[in-house]
């Protein structure tokens, strides 16, 4: 050959490489959309002056990449990756539970939706756990995984919570308070 390397003979059953789909999501910059950034609830806030409204719009514009653009957009936390410490315990193998036909179709639809939205990916491993479909108050379905057997053998973390009086003292003198709620927060941190 031109490169000076001699041809090699490889057994036809030998694995010389593997291919895997790329699962990283590359976000594209979004153009500023006032309808995206100014939900109707913000427009109807009482007790907020025009300067505060402008400041809020600017903050929403600056951090619009953190806001969902659709119901299926749940985002991803890249600050940490969750690890489950099972010590030296051998894998617990649980098998799928039988689902009625209607529930099976719903499970397949939900799995496809989560794969399409980058929430889950196909995998195989020694720690399978069964899924559970729970009906929510609004009639929709919550997709869950039954990790009870895994939880029993998981080595527990010890992270003490802050004392409530220290937390309240830290808020002393504050005039503005807000609450943030993650959409589908359970699916945000990678495992």
Tell me what you see in this structure.
The chain has 191 residues and is α+β, with helices and mostly antiparallel strands. The protein has 2 domains: 1-84 and 173-190, no CATH class; 101-153, HIV Type 1 Reverse Transcriptase, Chain A, domain 1. The chain contains 6 helices and 4 strands. It has helices spanning 34-37, 40-43, 50-62, 101-116, 148-153, 164-170, and strands at residues 77-81, 131-135, 141-145, 189-190. The strands form 2 sheets. It has a two-stranded parallel sheet. It has a two-stranded antiparallel sheet with strand order 2-3. A hairpin with a 5-residue loop joins strand 2 and strand 3. The longest helix is centred in the middle third of the chain and has 16 residues, at 101-116. The radius of gyration is 24 Å and the shape is extended.
Question: What are the main properties of this structure?
Answer:
191 residues, HIV Type 1 Reverse Transcriptase, Chain A, domain 1, two-stranded antiparallel sheet, two-stranded parallel sheet, alpha+beta, 6 helices
């Amino acid at each position: 050959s031109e490169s000076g390397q001699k041809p090699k003979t490889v057994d036809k059953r030998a694995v010389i490489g593997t291919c895997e789909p790329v699962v990283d999501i590359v976000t594209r910059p979004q153009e500023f959309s006032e309808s995206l950034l100014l939900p109707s609830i913000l427009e109807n806030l009482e007790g907020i002056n025009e300067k505060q409204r402008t400041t809020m719009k600017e903050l929403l514009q600056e951090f619009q990449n953190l806001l969902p653009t659709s119901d299926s957009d749940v985002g991803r936390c890249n600050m940490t990756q969750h690890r489950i410490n099972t010590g030296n315990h051998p894998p617990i193998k649980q098998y799928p539970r039988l689902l009625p036909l209607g529930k099976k179709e719903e499970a397949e639809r939900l799995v496809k939706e989560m794969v399409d939205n980058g929430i889950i990916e196909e995998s195989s491993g020694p720690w399978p756990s069964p899924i559970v479909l729970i009906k929510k108050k609004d009639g929709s379905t919550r997709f869950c995984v039954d990790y009870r057997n895994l939880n029993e053998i998981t080595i527990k973390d010890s992270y003490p919570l802050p004392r409530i009086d220290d937390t309240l003292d830290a808020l002393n003198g504050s005039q503005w308070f807000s609450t943030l709620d993650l959409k589908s927060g359970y699916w945000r941190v990678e495992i």
